Structures are given as structure tokens and as C-alpha cells.
Amino acid sequence: MKLRLLAAALAATVVLPLSVASATDLEVTHWWTSGGEAAAVAELAKAFDATGNHWVDGAIAGSGGTARPIMISRITGGDPMGATQFNHGRQAEELVEAGLMRDLTDVATRENWKDIVKPSSLLDSCTIEGKIYCAPVNIHSWQWLWLSNAAFKQAGVEVPKNWDEFVAAAPALEKAGIIPLAVGGQPWQSAGAFDVLMVAIAGKDVFNKVFGEKDAEVAAGPDIAKVFKAADDARKMSKGSNVQDWNQATNLVITGKAGGQIMGDWAQGEFQVAGQKAGTDYTCLPGLGVNEIISTGGDAFYFPLLKDEEKSKAQEVLASTLLDPKTQVAFNLKKGSLPVRGDVDLDTANDCMKKGLEILAKGNVIQGTDQLLSADSQKQKEDLFSEFFANPSMTPEDAQKRFTDIIASAD
User: Fold this and answer.
1) Residue 110 burial (CB < 10 Å; 0-12/13-18/19+)?
2) Which segments within 250-330 are labelled E, that is strand?
3) I want to staple 85 with a disulfide (CB 3.0 to 4.6 A). Which of 28, 30, 338, 385 is the partner?
4) d(CA 378, CA 395)
């Protein structure tokens, strides 16, 4: 469904939920429901409540893939929330084009977002036809391999320093009754793991050619064939995970039932809640220990157009609060992500977060696929890798052909 076709009809029907108690109560929808995520979002709520307004939490259980259709349906159906989480990129593009989302350019200009938000690609992802429509809150990088030190000790092998050593250690882990690689059943997890393998094995230039330039010839070539071979290794090592949610897969690593997990830096929040210490209880390998490159995707908040003047004012306050230096530090330390401001103090960051900050400072970054692909193309990719990881009979060669077709038609 193209949302822009609904714009004229919906503009006249947008109303506020009758359940909202006061003008400064603002419902905020998001999909942060794991232990670490809940601790992080509580920091945002605390900061907003301190302004005299009230954060009405609208958490939606499940992943973004579950939550986004609900969020979009509410906005297009005339029941908008005060603010809603999306990932940096193109997920809200059609909502903006339909005239259903608020322009934050005045707030961004007044508070110099263009000067403080780093890298600039984060704000670029919020910008459509020169206007800013979202407030970025963090930098989440996918390119991490999280390892259980206890699992490798039990298996009698050294903690790996890179992907190849991890693959080589898999038989010892299996012999000890440990799943080598934890992968949850949600499609975005297997698709994300493939993207991480691409950067590590094929490199930054190939990643940008495939996802940035939509180069189908490169997608069909030998560099990507090597990535599919690694993805085949990954699916073999993940046999027996038998979990759905990403945080359940992370918990397998935390409890030593799995050797490792390819997952974004949000996994740090789960280790923190479990009382585990980076470098002691678990090890993190940015870029899988092969190419220390991180993506600069993450989360941002968009603000649907509201007719209530007081709530509209509260939206501005929330947008400003999200980028406040103190809020940025408190939230990101709990979330495991990096701040979007380059001028905040993160001396209390753990070893893994400091590794991410060093990589960011060197400029060894790529954009996330949410920024480079439309939501439709991203969904096709997720469907492919969900099937690939679930169906051992699909060969890497057949999967690469389907992947090439997706890239050839991607927008």
C-alpha cells in the first residue's frame, strides 16, 4: 500500500486517543522490551518526565518487524501516538511523503543538530527534501561477534580472536555439548548476520557496491560467493539454537550454552543486566575480528502530526530532550550503543563500547542497510536469509542467485 495515496483522506481524520489524560502526557511507542532495552528506555522516560511532561510508555513486544506495522497502522488510521521509534533510514519515508509526520527542522536548527550529530549521515537519514523529520538517539552497529569466555574454557580451547578461529573452534564446542553460534529465528537476525559477514569477508567497498550502488554484477560475483560460504558455515554452527528472539540467543551466550552470537551492540545491554563484565566474562570482536568497521545505523524518533497544541509543544520538548548531553550518556550506557553527539563524556564506557568509539573516531564506518535499502527490499532480503538458515537443502549457490535478483531490483 502506498501511503501517499491516503494523505488527503487521512489529514482530515487524524484525532487524538481519548484515553490521553492531559495535554502533557505523550505516548511514545517503541519495541524495546528486553531487560537491557527496558533499562535504557527508562532513562529516556526519566529525562522527559523531569521536564514536567509525562512519558506514556507504548512498548510493543517483539521485534521491529512486529512493531512497525502496528505503528504505521495507527498513524495512517487516525490514531497517532505522540512519538514513535523507527530505525535510521527509510522506514518512515512514505509516512513523511503522505504528510503525516511532523517537520522538526525548526527544533533542529535552533539546537544546531547539524553541528552536534556525528556522523552527518545520521541526520541525512532524517532529511527528506531538505526538511528534518526525526531525532536520532543512538548509533547501533551490527558488526560484532559476542563470545562466552566460559564456553570456550569448558571446551578446552582459547577464546577466538577472529571469525576463522571461531569456525575452527566449532567442533570442540560441539563435543562439549555447546552450540557454536546462537541465531534466533526472527528473519532480521539471519539477514543481519549475513550483512556482517559481508563486511568482514568481502570488505567495505564490496558492501557499498552491493547495497549502496545496487550492483547486481558484484552481488553475483566471487567475493559474495565467499560470503555465502561463510553464511553456510554459520547456519551449520547455529543448528540447535531453537530460540526465536535475539535476546534469547544472547542469553545462550551469557549462560555458556552457546559459544558466540553475531549481533549488534545492543547485546551489551543484556550482558550488563546479567552482571557480566566485558573482557572478563565475555569477549567482543568488532568486524568479527577481521575488518574493524562498524555501521552507523541505529534508532530515531519520529513525531506524527497532532492537532492538540499542548501535545505538539510536548513533542518539541521530547525531541530536544532526546539529544540532551546527559540523556545521551545515560541512555547509551544502558543501551550499549554509541551517542549521536560527538561532544559527550563516556569515560565510564566498558571495553566494548570504547572499541566502538575508537573505530568511529577513525572513520571506519558504513551506513546500515536500513539506510541504503527501501523497507520492501530489506524485507525481501530478510525472507531469503530466514529461509536459507532454516532450510539446509538450499545451496549457497541458489541463495546467491536469489540474492542477486533482489539487488538487481532493489530501490
Assistant:
1) exposed
2) 258-262, 282-286, 294-295, 299-302
3) 30
4) 21
CA 306 and chain centroid, separation: 27
**Of residues 264, 197, 285, 201, the one with CA closest to residue 237:** 197
The identity of residue 280, as a single letter, is T
| Torsion angles phi and psi, residue 284, rounded to 5 | -120, 135
User: Distances from the Cα of 215 to the Cαs of 176, 185, 231, 367, 403, in angstroms?
Assistant: 43, 29, 20, 16, 11
**Cis before 17? omega within 30:** no
User: Under CATH, what is the fold of the domain 144-295+371-409?
Assistant: D-Maltodextrin-Binding Protein; domain 2 (3.40.190)
Give the cell for residue 403.
540474492
CATH number of 25-140+297-366: 3.40.190.10
Domain ranges of the chain: 25-140+297-366, 144-295+371-409
Same fold, 25-140+297-366 and 144-295+371-409: yes
30 is written with which cell numbers?
517503541
| Overall pTM surpassing 0.85 (yes/no) | no
| Cβ neighbours, 10 Å, residue 283 | 20
**Number of residues in the chain:** 411
Instruction: Quote the cell numbers at residue 26.
Output: 505523550
pLDDT per position as a tens digit, 350-389: 889 889 989 988 999 998 898 899 989 999 999 999 999 9
For residue 178, the tally of other CB atoms under 10 A from its CB is 23
In degrees, rounded to 5, the angle at the alpha carbon of residue 194 between the alpha carbons of residues 392 and 294 is: 160
